[in-house]
Amino acid sequence: MRNTIDIDLVERLRASGHRLTRERQLLLDILSESAHLDAEEIYRKAQKTLPQIGLATVYRTLNLLKELGVVRTIDLGENHSHFELCADEHVHFVCTVCGRVTDVPMPSALRSAARKRGFDVRRAKLEMFGVCDACAKAKRRPEAPKP
Ligand SMILES: [Zn+2]
Ligand SMILES: [Zn+2]
Predict the structure, then answer these.
(1) Gap from CA of 146 to ligand 2 centroid (Å)
(2) Which residues have C-beta under 5 Å from ligand 2, the single-atom ion?
(3) β-pairing, 90-95 with 127-130?
(4) For 8-12, 34-38, 66-70, 101-105, which range has the lowest pLDDT when averaged over its residues?
(5) What is the dihedral of CA 71, 31, 77, 88, to 10 degrees?
(6) Taking the C-alpha atoms of 61, 11, 14 and 33 in order, what is their torsion angle to the nearest 10 degrees?
(7) Listing from the earlier edge strand, what are the strands of the sheet with 127-130?
(8) How many C-beta atoms lie closer than 10 Å to residue 49's C-beta?
(9) How far, in Å, CA of 82 to CA of 35, rounded?
(10) Which ligand is closest in space to the CA of residue 88?
(11) Ligand closest to CA 131
């Protein structure tokens, strides 16, 4: 899913006294093109445009963007974080076999359940783990007879 960078996000950066540096702009561009990347993947993509960028800068920038609420981390059951823009709210289906992540819109039933209880949702995070269609099919395929 391609998220467009919300003008709001850029404004939030400016309002907090942070300039939109080339590094910050680049990371936002990378995250708007592909979600769910981890820091190493973002670093490798960033190097293609800014070869001199360091891994430490990437981490520092990601942390800043996270503090400002522009970027959020998601836990895909690995021992490191993946990042995405806080552009819209969605649920993640995470395949535990191949690691594929599918974005699914937040079910409106959850929203109305919150409303019924007078609960004001400020942010949401939901990851569901299972096996994707392709992995399930691969598993069903009969194994080649052993010699
Ligand atoms: Zn899979
Ligand atoms: Zn996502």
Answers:
(1) 41
(2) 35, 84, 103
(3) parallel
(4) 8-12
(5) 60
(6) 30
(7) 101-105, 90-95, 127-130
(8) 13
(9) 8
(10) 2
(11) 1
pLDDT in tens, 25-81: 899 999 988 889 999 999 999 999 999 999 999 999 999 999 888 888 888 777 888
**Domain residues for 103?**
89-140
CATH label of the domain that carries residue 65: 1.10.10.10
Please tell me the pTM assigned to this model.
0.71
The ligand minimizing its distance to the Cα of 126 is 2
CB atoms within 10 A of CB 71: 21
Check whether residue 94 and residue 83 sit in a common domain. no
What's the structural domain count of the chain? 2
- Strands, E, within 50-145: which ranges? 71-74, 82-85, 90-95, 101-105, 127-130
| 145 alpha carbon – ligand 2 mean position (Å) | 40
**CATH for 135:** 3.30.1490.190
Ligand 2: distance of its center to the CA of 114 in Å?
Answer: 22
Task: State the ligand closest to the CA atom of 73.
Answer: 2
Ligand that comes closest to the CA of residue 71: 2
